[in-house]
Design brief:
Elements: E1 8-12, H1 17-28, E2 32-37, E3 56-60, H2 66-80, E4 85-88, H3 103-127, E5 134-139, H4 152-172, E6 177-184, H5 206-218, E7 227-230
Parallel strand pairs: 1-2, 1-4, 2-3, 4-5, 5-6, 6-7
C-alpha cells in the first residue's frame, strides 16, 4: 500500500555536494521533491527512485537570473503542488585577492549567496494562495559571524544573507512564509576541500547538517529560531 508523501520540497543546488545528500535523504524519507542544478546534472545513483511512490523532478536553474529562479518555483508548484519547504543550498566560495579586486565577481557572489533569497520569497509570496505554512531554509555559514582571511566577499555575502532572513520575517510573516538561516562551519564536502589552513578531518559531517534541517522542518511555530549556528569542534 502506497503511503501519502510527507510534503513537497524544492531544493535549490541539488547538484552540489551538500544539496545532493540533502535531496537523497528527504526523498528516501518520503517527500515529493524537485531539485535544481546549474552546470551539471545531479548524481542519482544513490537515490532509491524505483522503490518510492513519491514524486521526483529536477530542472536547471541559474541563480544569476531571477527569472530562472522564479521558473523553478513555478515548475515545482506545477509538478508536485503547493510548496511546503524550500531548502536553499546554493552558494559560491572563493578566496579574494585584494591586489586584483574584481568588482563583477564580488557582485555575482552577493547575488548568488544573498540577494537571490529575496527573489525566492517574492515569487513564493505572489504564488501562495493557501493559508498553510511555508518554510524557506537557507544554508548560511559561520562566515556570517566571523571574518576569515581573504574571504571578504564570501563573509560579506553570508552576513547579508542573515540580515535578509531577519528582515523578510518581519515583512511577510502574515502570508505564513517563514525564513531560517542555518549557519554552518566548514563541511566535509567538495567546497570544504577549498578551505585553507584547517584540518579537513575535523570538519562537520553532512549528516549533522541534515539533522538540523529536519529539526527546522518539523519545528512548530510560533517558535522561530531565525538562525542556527553549527560550529565545528576545534580539537
Amino acid at each position: 500500500m502506497k503511503k501519502n508523501p510527507k510534503g513537497n520540497i524544492l531544493i535549490f543546488g541539488g547538484s552540489g555536494g551538500l544539496g545532493n545528500e540533502v535531496a537523497k535523504h528527504f526523498y528516501n524519507e518520503g517527500y515529493n521533491l524537485l531539485l535544481t542544478y546549474n552546470k551539471s546534472l545531479p548524481k542519482f545513483k544513490n537515490f532509491k527512485i524505483q522503490n518510492m511512490p513519491n514524486k521526483f523532478f529536477y530542472t536547471k536553474c541559474d541563480f544569476l537570473n531571477e527569472n530562472s529562479i522564479k521558473n523553478a518555483i513555478k515548475l515545482t508548484k506545477k509538478k508536485i503542488g503547493d510548496i511546503n519547504y524550500i531548502i536553499n543550498c546554493v552558494g559560491i566560495f572563493y578566496y579574494d585577492d585584494i591586489k586584483n579586486f574584481n568588482y563583477k565577481k564580488i557582485s555575482e557572489t552577493f547575488k548568488i549567496n544573498a540577494f537571490s533569497l529575496i527573489t525566492i520569497n517574492q515569487c513564493v509570496f505572489k504564488l501562495k494562495k493557501d493559508k498553510k505554512i511555508s518554510k524557506i531554509i537557507s544554508i548560511g555559514s559561520s562566515s556570517a559571524l566571523d571574518g576569515f582571511k581573504d574571504t571578504y566577499s564570501y563573509c560579506g555575502s553570508k552576513h547579508a544573507l542573515l540580515g535578509i532572513v531577519k528582515s523578510l520575517n518581519e515583512s511577510i510573516y502574515k502570508k505564513k512564509i517563514f525564513n531560517y538561516c542555518l549557519n554552518v562551519g566548514s563541511i566535509k564536502n567538495k567546497m570544504g576541500k577549498k578551505v585553507r589552513g584547517k584540518e579537513f578531518k575535523n570538519f562537520i559531517e553532512t549528516n549533522s547538517v541534515i539533522k538540523s534541517l529536519k529539526f527546522l522542518l518539523n519545528l512548530d511555530l510560533p517558535a522561530l529560531p531565525e538562525e542556527i549556528f553549527i560550529k565545528r569542534f576545534r580539537r
